[in-house]
Amino acid sequence: MTSATAVDDIVGSEYEHGFTTEIASETFPPGLDEGVVRAISARKGEPEFMTEWRLKAYRHWLTMPEPAWAAVHYPKIDFQSISYFSAPKRPEDMPKSLDEIDPVLLDTYNKLGIPLEEQKALAGIAVDAVFDSVSVATTFRKSLAEAGVIFCSISEAVHDYPELIQQHLGSVVPHTDNYYAALNAAVYSDGTFVYVPKGVRCPMELSTYFRINARNTGQFERTLIVAEAGSYVSYLEGCTAPQRDENQLHAAVVELIAMDDAEIKYSTVQNWYPGDAQGKGGIYNFVTKRGDCRGARSKISWTQVETGSAITWKYPSCLLRGDDSIGEFYSVAVTKGRQQADTGTKMIHIGKNTSSTIVSKGISAGEGTQTYRGLVRIGPRAEGARNHTQCDSLLIGDRCSANTFPYIEVKHPSANMEHEATTSKISDDQLFYCRSRGLTEEDAVSMIVNGFCKEVFNELPMEFAVEAQKLLSISLEGAVG
Amino acid sequence: MNGVISNGFESWLAAPPGQLAGAGLDWLDDQRRVARERVREQGVPTSKTEDWRYTSLKGLLEQNFAQVDEAITALQPDDLEDILIPGLDSHRVVLVNGRYAPELSVLGDLPKGVRLGGLRTLLDADPDALRDRLNRIAGDRQPLFLALNTAGLDDGFVALFDRAAILERPIELIHLSVGMDEPRVAQPRHLVVLGDGAQATLIERYVSLGESLYCTNSVLEIALGRDAVLQHDRIQMESANAFHLTGLYLSQDTNSRYRGVNIGLGARWARTELVTRFRGEQAECDLQGLYLAGDRQLMDYHLDVAHSVPRCTSRENFKGILYGKGRAVFDGLVAVARDAQKSDAAMSNRNLMLSESAEVDTKPQLEINADDVKCSHGTTVGRIEPEMLFYLRSRGISAPLARRMLCLGFAGEIIQTLSAEALREHVSERVGQRLESAPLN
């Protein structure tokens, strides 16, 4: 087999979305201190409580050590060399409609395949596009408003719905949670706020495209989704980033809150710039994502397809507090070149009759390193808890790694806990079978890998599933087992 | 930090009166000195230490165990009557509180090329036979309890098999603990070396006279030469008040076979570390385990299996039954090195929880750095299926008996891998007794 050269092909394939838009940004000089935190808050015209919250987080962050337990390696980050705020020019002149949007920006979105003009025609998706740090375009706001759904940038929400923000922000991921969550709380630039009122089924799938643009700018997104009793919302998150030389830090926080009978479906396709063949220049993706099934019979479902970033460090989790609540985690992670991913989930069973499902598919190629790290905890009062975990790794090439580190803690006898993990490669038999039926080697590999990931892709909304499959086949072009 | 650390285990390091075995041998004195330094420079593990995440040393540290400083010589062979397993015909080596007791041991006829006996005796008689073997397999890493054991290295059991030596009957190694005036720690050190093509069966038993409080910290190094075969049954039935620590360090050369069966029934706090290193291709290592954790009992297992060369096979199959406030920890790691192609590893940990307040923490880990491998792990935690109970009860079997039958069935898979029928009966019986007294609900 030609695996060595095939793997070289993958490593050598250029990043498809590697371009940089020339827009003058108003960017803070690099560095972080209390003054910068205050300045960010002031620039965004935030109320007093928000400034205080940021400062509290910043002071706590100073006391925390940088975590080193993940199985990833990277040069130490110099937090003083990062600029913590960048906004597209003319912030006082925020666009009110598509016509007012900077044509260069629109062009960028077109390159990314998100033509805003055609959004309305596209399958009912409202896009809150985040270009660097300030939201510059929001569509479908009106029809959402009719349903009573709030879908806006978090800065707007701080102004318009301060009581909701005060009540919920940081209630799932407190500023003390971890190093990067504390940093995010201190300097978060912008993000998305979704509020679905009682009994409302959100009429469309909500979507935000993130894109890192200005050089040397850490991106600190913050997302908060609140689903009141009996409501439903599906949220899509996707990212691409332009090519650059220096590593960029991306430390986002996502908080989900589901009350009684509410359901939140959160899907991610992550395709940040992974770095060049030497592993230089990729994004550091250190993300804290957590959902709180606060109400009885609530459900939170995480689906992620991770193909980008030099380093991915994220564990979308569910706190199953309400009785009969459900947590789900479906993940496909691909690492190639020198990419490293340390990802997984935590399912914390607290309420009675809670259940969780974990399906994690890791694909490692080239010199990629992949780690599944997960925790299933069944608490002493979690009667009737159920968990099923399936972790599969597919290795392509003999220079890659796949680790599985599950932690399972069971404190109730009625628990029903199953964990399975396998590691394999694409077998010669499978390839031979496909090839004997006239498929090219490449198609066969693509078919086998897609089959391997199918359980996860099935969970994605249709538009994302298409994008995910495309991403996967681009990522693994020419790879043979 | 050093001061704090040493305090906890300083009493373990205190040299016993008289000379340690082989004192004056430079290489051995060096090993003990280095180990002593290692103890002092590493901290007492806390819940932040990954290997000790689920296991607290608090109870052990509170005891302030002192080193065993005198040999018990008052025992007569008759005193062993209750301990011996009827029908088990063996070459018997008895250690009392970590010291080799020749008067209780029955070595029997040994074929040419097989040496069995006490470590101290052999160090006096033929130190060169041990020089390049002792403390070689455990390696330089020396975690705390291995370092403590090495620092106080004084006596234990040795089995040396020359090339192609085969012992038909099993070696039975009995660790007998006898209560003393104050709580003591015994730290026996064992070495088993099988030359190329040698074959043996080792039955290792931990037993006590009475239910006294003591601590055992034993270390066993095993080196298997090419094509060597060792069946190793370990049955831990320490006193219900004892603390039990054991480290097994295994090195396997090409095409060697090791099968270890670990039965854990006794002690209130027991930790077992099993470390396997493959040195040659096509070696096989099979680790089976069964543990019962009753009320306030802790059973803690750590497996570290490194596939550092291609084409080796390993199996790790551990099953546990928990009741009362019993706790179990299973932390298994299978690591496949880069280029260790065609490695085949399967790890499984299954737990049966019989009570509300039992707890299981399990962490089966895989670290794979080669692509052409077959590796898997599986874990389950659950209770007895109500349907199974109903089936048996509908046939007129009482609920407690039905539960016991189901538990014994669950345990049977491991028990049947023991080497001798007499041993299987002995273990089944003890497991049955434990389950009978267990407050099932």
Question: How would you describe the overall organization of this protein?
Answer:
The complex is a heterodimer of chains A (481) and B (441). Chain A is built from eleven helices and 24 strands. Chain A is of the alpha/beta class and 481 residues long. Chain A has one domain (3-93, 141-475). In chain A, the strands form three sheets. A ten-stranded mixed sheet of chain A has the order 4-3-7-9-12-14-17-20-22-24. Chain A has a six-stranded parallel β-barrel with strand order 13-15-18-21-19-16. Chain B has a domain at 1-280. In chain B, strands 1, 4, 5, 7, 8, 10, 12, 14, 16, 18 and 20 form an eleven-stranded mixed sheet that branches. By secondary structure, chain B is an alpha/beta fold. At the A-B interface, β22, β23 and β24 of A face β20 and β21 of B. β24 of chain A pairs antiparallel with β21 (374-382) of chain B.
Explain briefly what this protein structure is.
The complex is a heterodimer of chains A (481) and B (441). Chain A has 481 residues and is of the alpha/beta class.
Largest interface: A-B, 35 and 36 residues
- Rg of chain A (CA only): 22 Å
Number of helices of chain A: 11
Total count of strands of chain A: 24
Low-confidence stretches of chain A: 89-96, 115-137, 210-217, 241-245
Mean pLDDT of chain B: 91
Highlighted features:
heterodimer, A: 481 residues, alpha/beta, six-stranded parallel beta barrel, 11 helices, 35% strand, globular, B: 441 residues, eleven-stranded mixed sheet, 22% helix, disordered N terminus
